[in-house]
Amino acid sequence: MNARLDHRAPLVFDTRELGRRPGALKRLSRSVVAPKDLGIEVIGVREGVTIELDLRLESVMEGVLVTGTARVPLTGECVRCLEPLERELEVDFQEMYSYPDADDRSREADTGDDAEEEDMLFLEADLFDLEPVLRDAVVLALPLQPVCREDCPGLCADCGARLADDPDHHHESADIRWAALQELAEAMRDGEKDNAPRERGDDSQEK
């Protein structure tokens, strides 16, 4: 069963006006405050920003079928150039909230699918909590590798400069193998200079 719900919570909804007559329908829109930790490491929804919800509540035999759309503002950073980015994400979701006595009926039916029964969400005093459904829908829709633009060139591997600001940016770099040979050649030249014979201009005087 769900933990006791607070009807004042922004993502808790009341279904009493809907009733239990199968086929009853109710539509509603609500602006809610985003809960914390709604996102992944590189992108997500800041706590406290406004989320726009459009919901369709339908009474069925087993409970209330909730179908909805959420529009959430995202903030994060580009994984290539590390610049901040903002965008809006729209996600759709659908979830069944079963009546409390549906759990008894499901046990009588003995479907044998324990995992499915554990995943069931229930109404509590005609209330349902949309947060776990919204959280799953948003997090699963987030890009794992967000970029500021599809062709973002990223950062220079040598100095960290943002390549989009300077498309001609580059560094002169020699192959390390050639660099080692060049150092060896310079060392050999220095050795040759040290070992070079001295001029014999005064030999006649010595004789």
TrEMBL record:
InterPro entries, alphabetized: YceD
Ranges of Basic and acidic residues composition bias in the record: 186-207
Pfam families: YceD (PF02620)
Top-level taxon of the source organism: Bacteria
Residue segments, region Disordered: 185-207
Name of protein: Metal-binding protein
Native organism: Streptomyces antioxidans
